[in-house]
Amino acid sequence: SDFYRSPVEKDSRSLMNIPFLTREADAEKAAALNKEFVSQAEKAGLVNLAGHRLVGGMRASLYNAMDIQGVRALIDFMKRFEHTHG
Length: 86
Description:
This protein has helices at 27-43, 68-85, and strands spanning 4-5, 17-22, 58-61.
């Protein structure tokens, strides 16, 4: 997707913790959009997606307890959010 980006270099990315940001370039607008993403995700039952306090944005943690349905729910939500905000 062109709407989201990773703040981590490809060779340093984790398969378990996936930080991501929107592609919004304006810092103030990006912070507001990320906050809205987290808020709407929580309303959709997707919790603990707020990113690291230093990096900001969002972070999906896909530990062993995360089932494939949870991953699909996050992907579907991300697509809907992009469609309404992209």
